[in-house]
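Exercise 7. Given the components listed, write out the predicted structure of the assembled complex. Treat all entries as one system.
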Amino acid sequence: MQKFKLTRRTLLAAISTLSMLAALPSAAFAASGDIRIVMKDLLTSNPEDVAHIERIEEGLRSQGHDIDITIVDLPSEGYAEKLNLMLLSGDIPDLIYFQGGDEQIAQQGVLQDLNPLIEKTTYLKDALWPHNEARLANYPYLLYVYPPRTKAAVMRADLLAATGKPAPTDLESWDALLRAIPGTEIGDTTVKYGIIAPNNTSELDAVFDPAFGVEATWMKNDAGEWINSRVSDAEREKLAWYSKLFADGILDPEFVTSNWEVKEDKFYTGQVGVVMGTAGPVIGIYETKMAQVNPGAELTLLEPAAGLQAVDVSKESRGFAIPVTTEQTEAVMAFLDFVASPDGQFLDRLGFEGTHYTREGDTLTATEKFGAWYPRFIISDPSEYTPPINALSPLAQSALDQGVTHFRPDNAFVWPAELAAAVDGAETYYRTSVFRFVSGELSTETDWDAFVQGWMDAGGKAMTEYAREALK
Amino acid sequence: MAQHTYDKINSPHHGKVPSRVVSAVGSALNEDWSDDFREPRTAEFKDNFQKWWPYYLMMAPGLIYFAVFHYLPIWEAKLAFEDLRIIGPNVWVGLKHFVQLFASPAFVEVLLNTLIISAMKIAFVFPLPILLALLINEVRSPRFRQSVQSVIYLPHFLSWVVIAGIFIGALSPADGAINDLRDLVGLERRGYMTDSGSIRWVLVWSEAWRSAGWDSLLYFAAIMSIDPQLYEAAEMDGASRWHKMRHITLPGIVPTIATLFILNVGLFLNAGFDQVFNLTNDAIQDKIDIIDTYVFRLGITGGQFSLATAAGLFKGVIGMVMMLSAHFLSKRLTGKGVW
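Answer.
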């Protein structure tokens, strides 16, 4: 009898152990560990960063994850170079934010394929934007869940009215508007130039490429062969138009020696009519600064002439990577999944209660400091999470929406390391030649063939041969 | 007499005298003691160390610094012959990166730019501090001389970021001071910063503006060390100021000129990273892209560390060869060298 009782006890113990084991899958999902994160502008010297990380740890704990997060300080100035040197020295954190320079690391097999990891997440997989999914399919080592960084063109609303021209809708009306701007007066200021793009023509290309038929990085010529758009007839027509704008004093003649600060200064002080900025927060900054410099001045978002430049989906240009050396992959993914969750997004996008917003009942109100807060890790696709307070002004949000509306994936791809010198040589040659075409030093009529040959010799030939194999 | 000479030659104020010189001098003075000079080097060092050990101790931090930060890292230049691996050992690839580098048309252009810019700087910037020092030396009013010196030294303390801003502003075709002056004399306004024919001259003259005053300090110090009795004797012989400058001052600073020239030649391929990096733009990058900016762009920013190391090593070897050549040439022509 005694023996039976013991057996029954044993049986009960076994049943309870089995029950616990049956519950294990859900318990095993709870990740734990210490993770080290290196990220640009995430510093222990910033009390907000430290407090933000602490409340993320708390949030993770409330979801059953016992994760300690350590910030690895790296100076923001020259971050990409310093990160490369840190990794080369053998110090490899568990979560690495790259701002370029990741390809060489990935080619050595040091970074994990994120696709299968993201697939297992609860929130992160749904937080991705369409361009994120395309980029992860092409290059699975980098994750940057943010809206596409398209460019948007803006100008002062009162200047547009003063020109007497309607908001442009196509290339012809764009040309007419830009030509009407120089000499137009707004207040005490006479605007000198129609448009400016800092350092090179990239920002112009972002808005005008499709209007000339520059649809993608690689296009097919009449023979059906892949050629780089930079040596296409469409590019030639575009440069001829830029050249006319330059010759007629519409395009600021000092654009190539003007950096983004000079561009903004010329815009706010009324020297230039139209500028392009990154859709979203940057357009919001332009709006705020313009109103500060010229009280009452408002900006108007301009529609591109025929859609926006195709978005490069070969890979993320920046973002988070997980090295294969880490033993904390689960903890890192739990962290990323948390910041993609509604709770994490609330923390990451709204800042601190009492500082960046106030709460009265269910109503949240942004404070003056709300504009100083920025999401550190993720901005989910709006279909997954919409914050109760929109950090963007209506204009900035419209610019962002414009980018989403005109989103088209490009067909550019990641170059192998062996072609690095060729790509650099061709890029330098192209950029220098573009200025010479625009400034009139070279003619698109007579010097184009020599330019194409020069581009080929500078590295374009090797690039084209590789592209024709890659795009087959 | 002979003993006195021996002491003088080995005095610490004369530094280390090459043994063949000591031997020759010894032979000339007294055949018997030449053997005494040829004592084993280790014994000589031991004696010197025992005698001057506090000075050796003071030298030690400097020597350690150079050993750790300048000589040990040279070993890592082997990266030029390897493929870098973050995990596991690097892979030896021989001359792969050098072949890749020299096969790149851009590198040939970059090398050519470096040589042209460096040659222009040596030809036009190197003589300026000498000229400046000679002219300042002729200023008789000490107060005026000190004022001039202070003013011309100042640009040396400005960073290239600031200097680039000044030059871009001053050379602006829209409202730059230089173009305003051109306007005044009826010349057409010119975009110096975007003109492929002008940009190298901008590098040369901005370098001269920044460094001529500061560099003249060395020559001025050399002039100050010339024995005043030479000038007094020349004056008694009726020499003019031009004659004194031509026959006393200039020959007096030739050793300084030779040394600095050789050192400059050694740094020939250092065409000025900071300067070019801050003054470049897309319009003229192909004219002023130098080895250092190429290495930075491709290697540090682009993550091609092995390729960049190969370019850097190539630059270092060429620099070393040029410096040694200049040293031996100078020794042969003037009897003066770096050592």
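Discussion: The beta strands of chain B are 82-83, 91-92. Confidence is low (pLDDT under 50) at residues 1-37 of chain B.
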